[in-house]
Specification:
Udp-n-acetylmuramoylalanyl-d-glutamate--2,6- Diaminopimelate Ligase, Chain: A, domain 1; 248 residues; 2 domains; 5-stranded mixed sheet; 10 helices; alpha/beta
């Protein structure tokens, strides 16, 4: 598949123009014109780039790319090493941030819902990224915590009573801890995101709404994984997901 055709296909699928994002979405670094083999991953780190080189990939497809607003724009140090490696091996870099969080089928939040067995009933927050569901039956917060550990492969942090009955859950992947109050206003008994801030603990204790910090990386693996599977099925591309472990 031609690189430019792939860029048009991905933009049509994920609709980045709908989002006011913190980084450019789509093709971030131009490599070779023909794309047959893609390595997918969460973050365009040096380790993931080297994995793409080892697999002779034509493109790297990630959720967390480069060129974030407010960061140092100088190409020195680790930024030079990353870019130099990509360019030396003529590898394209495609990155989709908020568009990959919000996609109704392939997005991180939709994929979390599928893995937890939750049905998205409504959305909230900016760009409707936050999701809300009513569980079929009340479930203890401790049971949801154990389910999260099984699904995501890492122990989450629960702020709340393990014996609290949960009927309404809300979630947003990654660093959405600042959306906790919006989830409370939406009527959630428990809110799950990737990260947690100091003030989150106090808000959970004072409102009685449980907070589950399940890991930024862990909650954002499945969107790019699903996107790679979609490209393999619909475009005939060789897509492999490489998980670079991250405890956060």
């Amino acid at each position: 598949m031609r690189r430019d055709e792939l860029a048009v296909y991905l933009d049509g699928l994920l609709e980045p123009a709908r989002f006011h994002d913190y980084c450019p979405n789509g093709l971030q670094v131009e490599g070779r014109r023909e794309v047959r083999r893609i390595v997918c991953g969460v973050t365009a780190s040096q380790a993931l780039i080297e994995a793409a080189v080892a697999r002779s990939a034509d493109a790297l497809l990630v959720h967390h790319g480069w060129f974030w607003k407010g960061e140092d724009g100088r190409v020195t140090g680790f930024r030079k090493r990353r870019l130099q490696t990509l360019l030396a091996h003529d590898i394209n870099l495609f990155a989709y941030h908020l568009p990959l969080d919000g996609h109704a089928e392939l997005g991180n939040n939709a994929q979390l819902a599928a893995r937890f067995g939750w049905t998205v009933e409504r959305r909230f927050g900016e760009h409707d990224l936050g999701c809300f569901a009513v569980l079929p039956a009340p479930t203890f917060a401790g049971d949801i915590t154990r389910q999260a550990e099984q699904v995501l492969g890492r122990p989450p942090l629960l702020i709340g009573d393990t014996q609290q009955e949960i009927t309404r859950v809300a979630w947003c992947s990654g660093g959405a801890q600042d959306w906790f109050e919006a989830a409370i206003d939406a009527g959630a008994d428990l809110f799950m995101s990737g990260e947690i801030s100091e003030q989150t603990t106090h808000l959970a204790r004072e409102t009685g709404v449980a907070y589950l910090a399940a890991g930024h990386h862990a909650t954002e693996r499945y969107g790019v994984m699903a996107l790679g599977a979609h490209l393999a099925a619909h475009c005939g591309l060789d897509c492999a997901f490489v998980d670079i472990d991250n405890p956060v």
